[in-house]
Amino acid sequence: MDRPAAADMASVKAARSALANPAYRFAGLVIVAGAVLLAVLAVEGEFHAIAHPSTRMVAFMLLAAGGEMWMMRVPSRTSWSLISASSLFTLATVVVYGVGPAVIALGVGSFLKDVRDQRKGIKRWFNVAQHVISVSFAAGAYSLLGGDLGAFHADSLPAILGAGLAFMLSNALLTCAVVALANGNRLISQLRRDFEAWLLIEGVMLGFTPVVVVATQSSLWLIPMLALPFLGVRQSARIAMRSDHAAMHDALTGLPNRVLFREQVDQAIERKRHSGGSLGVMILDLDRFKEVNDTLGHGQGDVLLRSIAERLGNALRDVDVVARLGGDEFGVMVSLRKHDPPAIVQVAERIRDALEPPFSLGDLWIDAGASIGIAISSDDADDAEALLQQADVAMYLAKHSGSGYETYDIARDPNGPERLELIRDLRHGIHNDELVLHYQPKIEVRTGRLVGFEALVRWQHPVRGLLPPADFIELAERTDAVRSLTLQVVEKALAQVKAWSEEGREMPVAVNLSARVLLDATLPADIERLLDEAGVDPSLLEVELTESSLIADPDRTAVILGRLNAAGVRVTIDDFGTGYSSLVLLRRLPVDAIKVDRSFVGEMHRSGEDAAIVESTISLADSLGIDVVAEGVESAEILDQLRAMGCHQAQGFYMCRPKPADELEAWVEAGRFEPALA
Question: What are the tens digits of pLDDT across the range 250-299?
Fold first, then answer.
């Protein structure tokens, strides 16, 4: 085949590919609609005003075009947003001079910006057509609501607000529609994700339109003064969006965090359903990171994590996603246009090769190494949580086998299909409010006075009945379901605290947090929000964390617990004495109480060694001003022994088994432990 024929064939294939793409088809329809609308405006004489422009019109049009060409970038929740003054001066042009000059100004600015940025032809013309349509909608709304062209008075305010809303909504709908079609997302999801940022920035900017119109009636030299409110809006938006951006990204590496990574995987799965191809998710766990932290300190550990993040970024394409999921765990998402699982495995090999050379830490060279779990999207993993769960299982298999990487195989999954089905049921159960709380009383050992409760979750499964936490908590902790489970437990516990408070009884309640939730930077804000919504004093909420869960990422944990403690929430270390770093934790973390593990308490009446451990723990806590709670008290003999040691609080089956709140009325009424209540 000669070269011209080959080129023609390639052009035909490209054209067919474009026509098969729903985003391109939609863009084409918008371009045609914009061209038709432009012709209608020309026929109706909407562009006649440009023939004899005033200085004020020229200023408005230049500012609208210039504002579109030179935008400012600010961080948003998941990426970046652009803000400019083009909307403000475009709407002002509509109000004073009509739709024609406004369409010309914004269209020219948009086209020149796209030429400068070297965007494809269809994108240039789509943007121009989008602006023609949105400006026309704004002008139509202004006219329908009684706005007078060129004449502004107080009665025009509703018309200007309506025009601004029409302009913003039409822009948002057209933009989100083409992005949703290109990415395979649902339109409502795309709108929900982007419209908040638009409303925050565009809405405020458009609100200044009446000020621009009135101010420039007397002198154009007042326009520079309008830069002050614009800069104020820009700075406020920057602060708000930077805060939102920080909540979705890891502060150390700048990479997306677990929450954002999960959202990105969900979006990629939607695109895969829409356009086919392959999607792979990998979880990387560093093999020797704890040794670096313990030997060289957390500062050098942070240097290593940043270096690993940099190498991962260099080893992957721009379209791939790298995230830090917490501690020494990273996530990678790879999308391919064709269904090609072996290509995804090759990416894992490339990552392993990139991490193989030693890392320089000061005068030392460190071999990091990583175990990689690979999960490839299939019918068995139709959402982000299932895919991440499979990658997690594969990662542990790789770590135990020493193979470097493993691809998920259902035949090797220790959880098995039944357990995976239970995970799916749990996610539905959380959504359907199937979780219930039982409460176990805590008493003051010396007096027997009731001092609070520990909330323990159960699951009322629609088929299997009431399931204890042992049947589902571990599964939840291996998926992102643990976050929604934890927040629902906190919400239900606070509702019960509020109910007791309304009866005149202040009853503190403790809830358990897992290691995975502790790595979520948004946790303190979520708990503060739930406290505000419930109207509960923060001092009535206590969070319990196992000692072993605290050592995975001590620095990050210290920040999160510090924020909770500063808000007034009490912090308790559970299972104290089993994590091998107790004294370090007590020194570094904002701890209000420690719970002596039941393995020591339950046998101390028979074991002198266990009794010595409990007694020394109580003595240590006394010297530090920390409360001690003994858990697993199952006899009067153990309770008497704890009283003699000076233990502060206790809980266990001897006093009361966990029960629903409505079965604890006798306890709440008595306000103290009486053997008859056990």
Answer: 888 989 998 889 888 888 887 777 666 778 899 999 887 877 777 777 88
- Rounded Cα distance between 574 and 577, Å, is 9
For 201-217, the pLDDT digits (tens) are 666 667 677 777 777 77
Rg (CA), the chain: 31
Angle formed by the axes of helices 86-97 and 55-69, nearest 10°: 150
- What is the helix (H) or strand (E) element at residue 579, kind and residue range? none
Contact residues for 662 (Cβ-Cβ < 8 A; gap 6+): none
Q: How many CA atoms lie within 13 A of 284 on its CB side?
A: 26
Question: Which are the contacts of 347, defined by CB distance < 8 A and separation ≥ 6?
Answer: 280, 282, 316, 320, 332, 334
The DSSP bridge pattern shows strands 509-513 and 450-461 to be parallel
**Is the Cβ–Cβ distance between 361 and 297 less than 8 Å?**
no
C-alpha triplet 19, 24, 30: angle, nearest 5°: 120
Classify 551 as helix, strand or coil. coil
Taking CA 245 as the corner, what is the angle to CA 517 and CA 352, rounded to the nearest 5 degrees? 65
Fold of 420-662: TIM Barrel (3.20.20)
- Could you tell me which CATH number the domain at 19-247 has? 1.10.1760.20
What is the CA 460 to chain-centroid distance, rounded? 28
Prediction pTM value: 0.50
Tens digit of pLDDT for each residue in 333-368? Answer: 998 777 777 888 889 889 988 988 888 887 788 888
- Following DSSP, what letter does each residue of 62-128 receive, concatenated? HHHHHHHHS-EEEE-SSSEEEE-SHHHHHHHHHHHH-HHHHHHHHHHHHHHHHHHTT--HHHHHHHH
641, 604 in Cβ contact below 8 A?
Answer: yes
What is the CATH superfamily name and number for domain 258-414? Reverse transcriptase/Diguanylate cyclase domain (3.30.70.270)
Query: Tokens at residue 317, please?
Result: 């394409």
Torsion angles phi and psi, residue 650, rounded to 5: -150, 155
| CB of 579 closer than 8 Å to CB of 552 | no
The domain limits of the chain are 19-247, 258-414, 420-662
